[in-house]
Design goal:
Blueprint (H helix, E strand, L loop, with lengths): L8 E6 H15 L2 E5 L1 H5 L3 H10 L4 E3 L3 H9 L5 E3 L9 H6 L3 E4 L2 H14 L3 E6 L14 H13 L3 E7 L11 H20 L5 E3 L3 H6 L7 E4 L22 E6 L2 E5 L4 E2 L5 E2 L4 E6 L16 E4 L2 E6 L7 E4 L10 E5 L9 H8 L3 H7 L5 E5 L2
Parallel strand pairs: 1-19, 2-3, 2-9, 3-4, 5-6, 6-7, 7-8
Antiparallel strand pairs: 1-10, 10-18, 11-14, 12-13, 14-17, 15-16, 15-18, 16-17
Helix pairs in contact: 1-3, 7-8, 10-11
């Protein structure tokens, strides 16, 4: 029997892989690097990921919310941090006081930041986001001149410094998609509006992971890299081999193994029935731990050196795998996904099996799993 894993189920994160990936991406892009650690570092741990990225030379850290940015500060991060997702009435003063760059999408949001500056007792650092075609957050082009004018007025009276102008690509994982050219052209128009008005931002940024890798013209002064920092492919089928290393491995301990006779069915709804005599193993994680229910009957795990198919529906706390007649015994290691170097499935394999993207696989996994860090 193989040695027992450290926990019933765990996420193992290789910080050495994250440092390697950030360094490799910095070399490739040749501009300032923002490592994005929102959503608890894409499931890898926000504080630990940010620290590893800083050690590898990341100039900026990016998060979605003020709460995430404040948590980084509480964890000891003192470098440049940008956050970008707020709602009306949210407390910008806490972010300003913590020396965090905040993002404005509208004149109304700039007014809220202005009020927060009075509370914080210090000028803000503000970045302006323009919507170039994602049709999500950001100022539409018809309101952009008003946002720029209000931002310039606030800079001139000392309320804030405008440190950046940015936008976000909608289809960078499809390099031939016409939206990429259209968005970049519109971003350049927005930059010209800001420059003509007199704004001189510190950084201009458009590219996410796929854009940073596949579209050199979109790199500008800074690239925002999330998924690729964790060693995952942001544009499957299009990304060249950059030598990135997936940082996350998800493991569990096999809870039980037993024979299964031909004709016996497995799990809720009996969606799978054994055609021949076989053996099965019980893996003690389920959709409450972020294992996609869509993986039922399609995804694989590694047990005893072989990939084993999930049989039947993934349950809240557990799922069953077909051991193909082998009987390795309870206590064996199960690898749901990892970097693939030992024959195990990858997060991308799970994404394809579940009809989703690797972003969702790594950010949703967790639940009752513990997290452990290694440095390889």
């Amino acid at each position: 029997m193989s040695p027992l894993p450290a926990a019933r189920a765990e996420i193992v994160v290789d910080l050495g892989a994250i440092r390697h990936n950030v360094r490799r991406l910095r070399e490739l892009t040749g501009v300032a690097m923002m490592t994005v650690v929102k959503a608890d570092g894409y499931g890898h741990g926000m504080a630990e990921t940010a620290r590893a990225a800083r050690e590898a030379g990341a100039n900026w850290i990016g998060v979605a919310t003020i709460d995430e940015a404040l948590a980084l500060r509480e964890g000891g991060d003192t470098g440049r941090v940008l956050c970008w997702l707020t709602v009306p009435g949210e407390d910008h003063a806490l972010a300003i006081a913590a020396d965090i760059d905040v993002t404005a999408y509208s004149v109304a949001e700039l007014y809220e930041i202005e009020a927060a500056v009075a509370v914080a007792g210090r000028p803000a650092r503000v970045q302006l986001k323009v919507d170039t075609g994602l049709s999500r957050g950001g100022a539409p082009m018809d309101t952009w001149p008003d946002v720029v004018a209000a931002a310039l007025a606030g800079e001139q009276d000392g309320t804030w410094q405008v440190t950046g102008v940015w936008s976000h690509l909608a289809a960078s994982d499809e390099p031939d998609h016409p939206a990429n050219d259209a968005q970049e052209a519109l971003f350049r128009e927005a930059l010209a509006v800001a420059e003509d008005a007199g704004l001189r931002p510190e950084v201009r940024h458009l590219a996410n992971s796929a854009g940073a890798i596949l579209r050199p013209s979109a790199r500008f002064d800074l690239v925002r890299v999330g998924l690729a920092s964790y060693g995952l492919d942001p544009a499957p089928g299009h990304t060249p081999d950059l030598g990135l290393r997936p940082a996350m491995t998800v493991r569990a301990t096999l809870a039980q193994t037993k024979p299964l006779a031909a004709g016996a069915s497995v799990s809720y709804g009996h969606t799978w029935t054994a055609e021949t005599d076989t053996t099965v193993g019980l893996v003690p994680v389920g959709y409450a731990d972020g294992v996609p229910r869509h993986a039922s009957n399609v995804a694989h795990v590694l047990v005893d050196g072989k990939q084993r198919a999930i049989r039947g529906r993934v349950c809240m706390d557990q799922f069953v795998v077909d051991l193909d007649g082998d009987l390795p015994g309870a206590g064996h290691d199960v690898v749901l996904f990892g970097d693939g170097s030992h024959g195990e499935p990858t997060a991308q394999d799970w994404a394809e099996a579940s009809g989703t993207i690797s972003y969702e696989i790594v950010t949703r996994v967790g639940g009752r799993m513990t997290r452990r860090y290694v440095d390889r």
